[in-house]
């Protein structure tokens, strides 16, 4: 009877860990190519903000331009992606187009088949919340 070949843990574990650490990165985020968005839906995942919509085309364009200016730097951290408590979805009529949510020091969105984050300064997050017309106290 043959003894099964054993692959040294010293080779397999670092390779798996490296794959998890590097996670997914994505430079082709859906909000980067979003067009004809007719409404934006905003809510807080913790229920502290009333759900609201923005349908003014000029405001939608400003918010979308903010997101599009941040197409680079998205990744999936090895520890998992935190959900941005201020959840924002872009819609074209009844069709979901993209999302771009905010956390205390990051943005979170779906891209390239993953949930991803991008580091953000408190100034960036504040600017985004101002564009949304939303005040939120991050915990």
Comma- or semicolon-separated keywords:
3-stranded antiparallel sheet; single chain; 9 strands; alpha+beta; 28% strand; 139 residues; Dna Ligase, domain 1
Structural account:
The protein is an alpha+beta fold and 139 residues long. It has a single domain (24-132), classed as Dna Ligase, domain 1 (2-Layer Sandwich), CATH 3.30.1490. Helix content is 27%, strand content 28%. The protein is built from 3 helices and 9 strands. The strands form 3 sheets. It has a 4-stranded antiparallel β-sheet with strand order 3-2-5-6. A 3-stranded antiparallel β-sheet has the order 7-8-9, covered by helices on one side. A hairpin with a 2-residue loop joins strand 8 and strand 9 (114-119). It is globular. The N and C termini lie far apart (60 Å). The relative contact order is 0.20. Mean pLDDT is 83; it is low at 9-22.
Please give the structural blueprint:
Elements: H1 9-22, E1 25-26, E2 39-44, E3 52-54, H2 57-68, E4 74-75, E5 86-92, E6 95-99, E7 101-102, E8 106-111, E9 114-119, H3 122-132
Antiparallel strand pairs: 1-4, 2-3, 2-5, 5-6, 7-8, 8-9
Structure described in brief:
By secondary structure, the chain is α+β, with helices and mostly antiparallel strands. It has one domain (24-132): Dna Ligase, domain 1 (2-Layer Sandwich).
* Mean of pLDDT: 83
Low-confidence stretches: 9-22
- Provide a count of the helices: 3
Q: What is the topology, as strand order, of the major beta sheet?
A: 3-2-5-6
Element pattern in H and E: HEEEHEEEEEEH
CATH class: Alpha Beta
Give the biggest sheet.
4 strands, antiparallel
Structural domain tally: 1
CATH topology: Dna Ligase, domain 1
Helix content: 25-40%
Structural class: alpha+beta
Computed over alpha carbons, the radius of gyration is 19 Å
The total strand number stands at: 9
Task: Label the CATH architecture.
Answer: 2-Layer Sandwich
Strand content: 25-35%
**Distance, first to last CA:** 60 Å
Characterize the overall form: globular
């Amino acid at each position: 009877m043959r003894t099964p070949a054993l692959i040294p843990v010293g080779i397999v574990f670092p390779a798996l860990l490296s794959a998890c650490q590097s996670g997914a990165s994505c430079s082709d985020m859906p909000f980067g190519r979003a067009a004809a968005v007719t409404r934006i839906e905003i809510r807080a995942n913790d229920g502290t903000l009333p759900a609201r919509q923005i349908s003014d085309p000029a405001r939608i364009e400003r918010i979308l331009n903010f997101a599009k200016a941040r197409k680079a730097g998205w990744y999936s951290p090895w520890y998992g992606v935190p959900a941005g408590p201020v959840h924002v979805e872009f819609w074209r009529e009844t069709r979901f187009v993209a999302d771009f949510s905010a956390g205390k020091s990051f943005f979170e969105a779906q891209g390239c088949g993953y949930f991803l984050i991008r580091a953000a300064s408190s100034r960036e997050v504040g600017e985004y919340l101002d564009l949304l017309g939303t005040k939120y106290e991050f915990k």
